[in-house]
Amino acid sequence: MKRVGKRGEGKFERISWDEALDTISDNLRRILKDYGNEAVHVLYGTGVDGGNITNSNVPYV
Questions:
Q1: Are 39 and 53 in contact (CB under 8 A)?
Q2: H helices present in the chain, as ranges
Q3: pLDDT, tens only, 2-59
Q4: Can you tell me the distance from the alpha carbon of 12 to that of 2, in angstroms, rounded to the nearest whole number?
Q5: Dihedral (C-alpha) 49, 52, 55, 57: value to the nearest 10 degrees?
Q6: Which domain holds residue 17?
Q7: Under a CB-based contact definition with an 8 Å cutoff, are residues 21 and 28 in contact?
Q8: Is residue 24 in a domain?
Q9: Total structural domains in the chain?
Q10: How far apart, in whole angstroms, are the C-alpha atoms of residue 1 and residue 8?
Q11: How far apart, in Å, are the Cα atoms of 16 and each of 2, 13, 24, 53?
């Protein structure tokens, strides 16, 4: 889904997975170009921890 109205209006349109992934990659490239590598944090895991983030597993934030 892609927002087509102002934020909070709840207006969206369906888009393909290809368009969604292209949008994400375009934005990540722009952010990296404008702000550098430290502007992006990639969070990954096995799913076992339920997405919890603590100082013990993100020591450089």
A1: no
A2: 17-35
A3: 999 999 999 999 999 999 999 999 999 999 999 998 898 877 767 666 555 555 555 5
A4: 5
A5: 30
A6: 2-39
A7: no
A8: yes
A9: 1
A10: 14
A11: 10, 10, 12, 31
